[in-house]
Amino acid sequence: MMIVDDEYIIIGSANINERSMAGDRDSEIAVGLHQPDHHTEDNHTASGDVAGFRLSLWAEHTGLYDPVFSNPHTLECVKRVNEIAEKNWTDYGRTDAFNPLPHGHLLKYPYHVMANGEVRTGLEFPDSQRLGAFIHGHPISNIPLLLTC
């Protein structure tokens, strides 16, 4: 699923590959929706059903509704979402955390993007040391075609 500017949404799988085009193995289906009467104007976010659907998804994933979510293009909104994800990530790593996360299930991704665009990798998940399972990640520059077809 992808929502663009609270105006357009595409839901489904629109992969075009050998498996889906053969017609006898995988199948693909996607639907795109657009509301031309509810579009973004003068730095104000769209207000149609696509925008309402995004807000309901954000409420589900963050566990709350914050009025700042109505303006996702603002720095205030980005900071609020990151604050929620950071708190949940910290709570996830607690050794006594056998209860649900307090704000939905949104977690920060365990990579850091620096101001210059550099991506720092190799970070450990919070509970990996306690469990004795060290999980590290790194970017892959070239995925063999064999894995994607």
Topology:
Blueprint: E1 2-4, E2 8-12, H1 18-22, E3 30-34, H2 49-62, H3 75-92, E4 112-113, E5 119-120, H4 128-131, H5 145-148
How would you sum up this structure in a few lines?
The chain is an alpha+beta fold and 149 residues long. The protein is built from five helices and five strands.
Relevant terms:
two-stranded antiparallel sheet; 11% strand; three-stranded antiparallel β-sheet; 5 helices; 149 residues; alpha+beta
**Helix tally?**
5
* Alpha-carbon Rg, integer: 20 Å
Oligomer: single chain
Residue stretches low in confidence (pLDDT < 50, at least 5 long) are none
- Shape from CA axes? globular
> What is the number of beta strands?
5
Structure description:
The chain is α+β, with helices and mostly antiparallel strands and about 150 residues long. It has helices spanning about 20, 50-60, 75-90, 130, 145-149; strands at about 1-5, 10, 30-35, 110-115, 120. A three-stranded antiparallel beta sheet has the order 1-2-3, with no helix packed on it. Strand 1 (about 1-5) and strand 2 form a beta hairpin.
